[in-house]
Amino acid sequence: MYRLDIPRQQLTTLLPRQAGAVAIMFGLTVFLLFGFMALAIDLGRAYVVRSELQNAADAAALAGARELNQTLAGVNSAVSTAIAIAAQNEVFFSEPVSLSSSDIRVGNCPSDSCMVPISAVTSNALARGKTFLRVSIPSGDINTFFARLPAVAGLPGTSALQTYGLAVAGRFVNDVTPIGVCALDQLNKGKVLPSGELEQYGYRRGMSYNIFTLGNLAGLPSDPYLINPVDAPPAACNSSNSSANNTAPFVCTGSSAVVTEIVPNVTKVYGNTGYSAGPIERALNSRFNIYGSGNNAVCIPSQAPPDSNIRDYSVGLGLGVSRPPFWMDPLDPTTPNQQSVNIVDGSVSISSKHHYGALWSYSRAVRAVGSTPNATAGSNFTPLEWATLYPLGALPELNYPGGSLGTQGSPYTETSGNNFQSPPTNGPGLANRRVLNLVIVNCHVAAGGSGSCRELPVLGIGRFFMQTPANLSGNPKQLHVEFAGLIEPVPLDQIKLYR
Description:
Elements: H1 8-14, H2 21-65, H3 72-87, E1 90-91, E2 95-96, E3 104-107, E4 115-117, H4 124-127, E5 132-138, E6 142-143, E7 160-161, E8 164-170, E9 179-182, E10 191-192, E11 198-200, E12 203-204, E13 208-210, E14 216-217, E15 220-221, E16 225-227, H5 244-253, E17 268-272, H6 279-285, E18 343-344, E19 347-348, E20 366-369, E21 376-380, H7 386-389, E22 435-441, H8 443-446, E23 454-466, E24 480-486, E25 496-497
Parallel strand pairs: 9-22
Antiparallel strand pairs: 1-2, 3-4, 3-5, 5-8, 6-7, 8-25, 9-16, 10-11, 11-12, 13-24, 14-15, 16-17, 17-23, 18-19, 20-21, 22-23, 23-24
Helix pairs in contact: 2-3, 5-6
């Protein structure tokens, strides 16, 4: 065995040379050690607090957004619900989360640029379109143990951290005007006519209808309905929400919050047979730059602009001089000269070509693909096929407008000439504002009767183009629309988190 013998005197001289080495090493590494401790303890604690606040913000935003129904009452309910739900969560492991109304904002899209403070929403008009809720929950100061910096040379020190929880929840409102029209054929979503043309729930694309003169269905009048834009079964119905005054702002923008994914005859809405010649007429006619003034105005041009083309498309109204020959010209004996088709007992009853109405002002008839009752839309017909589609003496339309866009063109798509008119004020307008996405209901079940909370079975959503301004004060009332097909699939309006 080897033995290491070091003289005592030599060992004594070596030891002083090691004195203070550990202290120097500790002094050099203590700041690094405190940095790691700050990361592990202080930032770790802040991360836990951030997670707690984020969970509370998510829950509060989702719960509050469900209450947003585009009314002032809905906004107030959303705030109360969000605050209550936030308080059910804990921060710092045991303290209830505190949320104030000043930390809540609403808007019509998830972006911060769309949001306004809760205090800015003071009326139903200002609440319209506000379907997103933003919740921000600040943590306040989180005292630190190691992540502290002293104040140096006038610079503030750091003795606490701050974090927050932020969530935005809501839904995009459906582009569905809260007006219901009766299906003319409730059994066939897509029917193949002898000419090969597609008919959807009894409506033919490119054909004009006055939805106030559809005749009788199931032996009872088939008047259109005002749809409650806020409430939908199985939720309770507030009858005031489907009144003309409360529905008019939704008609202005062509939006509602009740129709989601549709199961025919299962999905239902609340309807009201009462119409007002005032607010609803002005709301519809905002698309033609007709707003009224003072207290009579129900639409705001900045929120409900006119269409970019406000030219009316009509026949038989003495306007032939402003129309090109051979298209809807009442002076031409080969084209229709009565504005709309009249429907009786669910079938088209036309005695001559003159009763077809202003054909193809927005869209064209389409060929059916598949078979009845679920045929779908195929290619467009051409004006040369009018004699086949409308076989009561209507000749091929040789001078049909819209040729610049080929088979997709129509008088409405013209950007100059007799078929185009830009709004003289509030321009340049918005294309397709005259297209109303209306709820098609099964009036064979719901026809007749009255009331503001009638449950109406929904079949689908149809696109209807306003050909002329509405006139709801005459007898009969007039809302001439051209059918432009079904909207499929119906956009969902599920409430979800966006941030």
